């Protein structure tokens, strides 16, 4: 079973949407749009859940993501 992490490589604010996108296998832009629309229509309630989840979900371990840099 895969574990949910906040993304280190695909992050705009806290990396939560990038981590959710990796976990679900979606594009991060889709998750961000869903979160934005949900925040607007919930009058900000989703924003509170986003902040709480950003605190509770751990950051992605440094060695677990593929770097785009080639050191050879």
UniProtKB/TrEMBL annotation:
Phage shock protein PspC N-terminal domain ranges (all copies): 2-60
Keyword presence, Hydrolase: no
UniProtKB keywords: Cell membrane, Membrane, Transmembrane, Transmembrane helix
Species of origin: Paenibacillus wynnii
Principal location listed in the UniProt entry: membrane
GO cellular component entries: plasma membrane
Membrane topology: Single-pass membrane protein
Record-given protein name: Phage shock protein PspC N-terminal domain-containing protein
Taxonomic superkingdom: Bacteria
Subcellular location: Cell membrane
Pfam families the UniProt entry points to: PspC
Residues passing through the membrane, by range: 33-57
């Amino acid at each position: 079973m895969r574990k949910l992490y906040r993304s280190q490589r695909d992050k705009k604010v806290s990396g939560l949407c990038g981590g959710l996108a990796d976990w679900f296998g979606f594009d991060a832009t889709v998750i961000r749009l869903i979160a934005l629309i949900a925040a607007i229509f919930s009058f900000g309630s989703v924003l509170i859940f986003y902040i709480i989840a950003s605190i509770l979900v751990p950051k992605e371990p440094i060695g677990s993501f593929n770097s785009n840099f080639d050191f050879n």
